[in-house]
Amino acid sequence: MTLQSLDIVRRSATTTPSPRARGAHTGEVAKLIDVSKCIGCKACQVACMEWNDLRDEIGTCSGHYDNPADLSAQSWTLMRFTEYENPDSGHLEWLIRKDGCMHCAHPGCLEACPSPGAIVKYANGIVDFHEEHCIGCGYCITGCPFNIPRISRKDGKAYKCTLCSDRVAVGLEPACVKTCPTGAIVFGSKDDMKQHAAERIEDLKSRGFANAGLYDPAGVGGTHVMYVLHHADQPQLYANLPAQPKIGAMVGLWKGAAKPVALLAMAATILAGFLHYIGIGPNETDERDEEAARRELEKPS
Amino acid sequence: MNASREIVRYTAPTRINHWLVAIGFVLAALSGLALFHPALFWLSHLFGGGPWTRILHPFIGLFMFIVFVLLALKVGRDNRMQAADWTWLRHARDVVANREQDLPEVGRYNAGQKLLYFLIVLCLLVLLLSGLVIWRAYFSLYFSIGLVRLASVLHAIAATVLVCAIIVHIYAAIWVKGSLRAMTRGTVTPGWAWKHHRAWFREVARGAAKPRT
Any idea of the CA torsion for A38, A43, A47, A49, to the nearest 10 degrees? Predict the structure, then answer.
């Protein structure tokens, strides 16, 4: 979405400051998804389609409840269903996680993006794609620790959840939050959401979920979409939610040290050639060489 | 110097092949650098903007690889390392200082050119394979994210090494006077061949070495 937001704290492939006269003086925002309250109704998926005017292709049944089967350029959020047999209680648990962009404080997508301004992070913490600057390289997919962005077959641009940045910018909550019938998704300042999560976790612990906890992974600096999990000690139970997500070492090398080192190496090679030419000079063939060659050519063999 | 006594070093097909590789390299390097470093993103304007740069770069790379394979097959036979080449390499200081009289006689290519040949072959293989893995429009979906990340790093490293190698290659043509015309007009003077590639010069003088390439 392009809005003249004036509150951009980071902009992809850009080193100078971006317009940021406006701040987030009421604090950063966060969406809190309480997995324990989710009934898997997919109203959030519908609300997302409706607000963002997205219509994914009608697919085929893949044999499980996930519908569509995966995130796509037209499906920015997706309920992922896991049937988990708890070895301690012997109960079958239906773990339903609303998947989508986590809006990391240190976004791997933004780190990897080579196109100036195609990915921005606002002062309120939302990470947004500006598709008109997107070149379609897919480096955001390579950089994302959560496997979220998808390239559209229609226009070759990358898409993902915007956290309804257009709604939030005018004081509304994201569409999925507005529609959630059980209150499993709530939205507010990050501090308030943490506080609300703490109350929920206390309640879950009192109901026998000793490992209930908040998912706000420090490896990416925390996220602006957080989960309350009944098994916070095993986030991977929830359709492979990464236990310790962080920007991969290879991405760090590729987008970190490699860039200055490579340019320096090229510049140094050119400089070395230049200095060699100035210091030692060209290797020339003179008349004596031609003479020697002529003698050898005329030698009867 | 009688023009008829000039020695043919590269035939027209080889020269054309070489310059196709060179054009491919320059375009691939410029478009690749645009995607690699934000400070060089402006280079994407040369290719019609960011999306066009992203679309064209892999095809330019493929083109370069294919024409390079043709060239590499032509010159490969003369680039095999031999015993004298290792002696030549031990005299690298003399080479850099233009003291060629202390060096062993050189055939069609010297050891530096041969090592450059193998380095370029290696770089282009890595660039091709890693490039296919990170070619998002067609192939990336077949590979795990971990492999795509690794390939991204390898692609950047191989490209950097290749660019540095080609800078050395270009500088060598500026440094050793009389070399450039071998690749533009196809010929060198007998004195040039005698001085820099004496073993090859003698083969040519004996009539043993017809210009194969």
Answer: 110
Burial class (CB in 10 A: 0-12, 13-18, 19+), A67: middle
Q: What is the pLDDT of residues A41-98, one digit of tens each?
A: 999 999 999 999 999 999 898 898 999 999 999 999 999 999 999 998 899 999 999 9
Domain boundary assignment for chain B: 8-206
Q: Predicted confidence band at B101 (pLDDT cuts at 50, 70, 90)? A: confident
Residues A274 and A287 in one domain: yes
Nearest to B177 among A266, A270, A285 (CB): A285
**pLDDT of residue B20 exceeding 50:** yes
Residues A244 and A184 in one domain: yes
Contacts of A285 in chain B (CB under 8 A): 177-178, 189, 191-192, 195-196
Name every residue whose Cβ is closer than 8 Å to that of residue B197 and which is 6 or more positions away in sequence. B106, B107, B108, B109, B110
CA A142 to CA B152: how far, in whole Å? Answer: 9
Q: What is the dihedral of CA B95, B100, B102, B104, to 10 degrees?
A: 90
Smallest Cα–Cα separation from A103: which of A80, A85, A126? A126
Query: Which numeric CATH code is attached to B8-206?
Result: 1.20.950.20
Mutation for B interface: A15, A129, A246, A254, most B CBs within 10 A:
A254
Q: Is the dihedral of CA A122, A128, A131, A135 positive or negative?
A: positive
Set of chain B residues whose Cβ sits within 8 Å of the Cβ of A286: 191
Q: Is residue A272 part of a domain?
A: yes
Which positions of B are annotated as active-site residues?
A: 169
CB contact (8 A) between residue B156 and residue A266: no
**Distance (Å, rounded) from C-alpha B151 to C-alpha B129?**
8
Note the pLDDT tens digit of each residue in A176-225. Answer: 999 999 999 999 999 999 999 999 999 999 999 999 999 999 999 999 99
* CATH number, domain with residue A188: 3.30.70.20
**Within-domain flag for A89:** yes
Return the beta strands (E) in chain B as ranges. Answer: 7-8, 187-188
Q: Is the pLDDT of residue B3 over 60?
A: no
Residues of B with Cβ-Cβ distance to A14 under 8 angstroms: 38
Cα dist. A266→A293, B97, B112, B158, B169 in Å?
38, 22, 19, 13, 13
Contact with chain B for residue A290, Cβ under 8 A: yes
> CA A99 from chain center: how many Å?
12
Quick one: pLDDT at residue B206? 86
Check residue A10 and give left, alpha or beta (phi > 0: left; psi -120 to 50: alpha): beta
The dihedrals phi and psi of A111, each to the nearest 5 degrees, come to: -60, -40
